[in-house]
Amino acid sequence: MEQRTIPNMFEESVIKYAGNPLMWEKKNDKYEALSYSEMKKLVYKFAAGLMKLGMNKGDRAALISEGRNDWVMSELAILYCDAVNVPISVKIDESNDLKFRISHSECKFVIVSKNHLHKIRKIKNDLPDLEKVIVFDRVDDPRDDEITKEEILKLGEEYLKHNEDNFNKAWQSINENDNANICYTSGTTADPKGIILTHRNYTANVEQATALLPIPEYYVSLLILPWDHSFAHTAGIYTLMKNGASMASIQLGSSPIETLRNIPINIKEIKPTFLLSVPALAKNFRKNIEAGIRAKGEKIEKLFNRALQTAYDYNGLGCDKGKGMRKLKKPLLALYDKILFSKIREGFGGRLEFFIGGGALLDIELQKFFYAIGIPMFQGYGLSESAPVISSNVPALHKLGSSGKVVKNLQVKICNEDGIELPLGEKGEIVCKGENIMKGYWKNENATNSSIKDGWLYTGDMGYFDEDGYLYVLGRFKSLLIGSDGEKYSPEGIEEALVEKSNLIDQVMLHNNQDPYTIALIVPNKESVKNELKKSGLIIHIEEGQKKAIEIIQQQINKFRNGGEFEGQFPERWLPSTFALLGEGFTEQNQFMNSTLKIVRGKITEFYKIRIDYLYTAEGKDIFNYQNKKIVERFEE
């Protein structure tokens, strides 16, 4: 039987879809296509050049670049050498973090774009395994151990003239169980671990995902998530490649902010049929839509809100859309769609059928919003250790609030703390078994043995199945609030709701580690708080103003308590009894958020340990404590 490797998968696609565009990249102010057959020629040359340079079976090569044609070319070329790609996020700026990944994986090669070359130059003297640095772009001051992409392509062209048979034998002899990738976790609760994924892990997951969501060859997606991210890697690059579809990269700006600003422009240019998203991006899309509606005046805003409510009523949870009495709203919804929602969809290029959301849990209200405007955001679930797709909602089968149906050829069960399978509907750990499950963690046998038992991956995530077979994911066990009586509760829902329902709170993290009560670390929206104070004629420099600021933050929490606007949404015992106001937000720069924009609880808890401990004292439990007043006083700084 032919080995189910990534090169074989790519070769099959080239035969079937030779002339189809595989990549779209913006050059000279317009997007240009690169076909499947053109990519194959580049991959052969680049892979042959890497072989000539000394890349052998099992060697590791780090890939650090923004999404571009060269990214896919490089990864495929590494895999054609039967070597292992170590994709690294371009967002990693901290030298020690970068050094750890390259050193721990013992990379002999680094392939890097010009924008990130300085990071490698800074640390390469501490990387004894590193032999060559390959740079995509020309640089003004090349070093002796650096070589450009163009030079590699020339080396490869020469090599293939005399060694084509050897080259073909090399990639055709790759085993599907050979390592393809070492993907480092973002480490939201601990240090990063290197996840070993084989060729078969990837090709199996592509088959699983495609069986759940068929991808026609006319599909095109703008890959707005980082390409090293496992979700974009499989659900984006390889799933599209397998099916003859195409992917586009974001136009690179002169700064990360400028690149972000290019996203809405590029969406209109590419006119994608679907997009991959994470909650943080989805919220930004929604914020921009609502800002656009507000700018049109109060009448349009009121009309839009009525249209939304009509759509919410008609759509239900998606699986019961238009059923029963809901069907009576169909004519009105069709009118709203024509005069409002269709105009919003034009802003996304006019062809966008749906989003697939991953990376973290999507707030159900956010899902209902996008469903209402006619671009459903289907939540999926997965983790890098499963390459990564485990389940997803799709157009044919979906229930808002769930993480969808499990992909084909994957066993999933819910287990208790002793590993015993629980009955339907009971909450426990999500445990999986299938060909997409990782080989293990690189050079970390203990972590491998604690995560994989008898071929089953213990995900560390809490969830349950409903009676219709939809999977619900409740959060990570390591993130759980644990009461003094041992009862556990997932904080994500409360955190999301506090931010979603209040313009005074930008970010929040709850904490309870077998303590008497739950506390919150709150990043306030300073400008909104100051504006609220102005209404009372107060300023932050006097104690009365500081107390008022703290009081209005408390009022946001009280909305979820008995008698509040949102009472009953969460159990009272898990709402924060007190809070610490923070002067600095959680960002990737301070490493309190990872590359998928999830908060890194372990680091935040460690950094703010003294403030957390203080909140469990009599003085600290009083929200008007001196620390909170001091933070408010510094709002101007």
Model description:
By secondary structure, this protein is an alpha/beta fold. 40% of the residues lie in helices and 20% in strands. It contains 21 helices and 28 strands. It folds into three domains: 6-175 and 213-248, 3-Layer(aba) Sandwich (Rossmann fold), CATH 3.40.50.12780; 273-478, Rossmann fold (3-Layer(aba) Sandwich); 480-636. It starts with 5 loop residues before the first helix and ends with a helix. The chain has a five-stranded parallel β-sheet with strand order 4-3-5-6-7. A five-stranded mixed β-sheet has the order 12-13-14-15-16. Strands 17, 18, 20, 21 and 22 form a five-stranded antiparallel β-sheet that branches. Helix 2 (36-53) crosses helix 3 (69-80) and helix 7 packs across helix 8 (230-242). The protein is globular, with a radius of gyration of 26 Å.
Short description:
The chain has 637 residues and is an alpha/beta fold. It contains 21 helices and 28 strands.
In CATH, what is the class of the largest domain?
Answer: Alpha Beta
Principal-axis shape: globular
Q: If you compute it from the alpha carbons, what radius of gyration comes out, rounded to the nearest whole angstrom?
A: 26 Å
**Residue fraction in strands:** 15-25%
Counting DSSP H or I runs of 4 or more residues, the number of helices is: 21
* Euclidean distance between termini CA atoms: 67 Å
* Count of strand segments: 28
The spatial strand order of the largest sheet comes to 4-3-5-6-7
Number of folding domains? Answer: 3
Helix content class: 25-40%
- The secondary structure category is alpha/beta
**Remind me, CATH topology of the largest domain?**
Rossmann fold
CATH H level, superfamily name of the largest domain: ANL, N-terminal domain
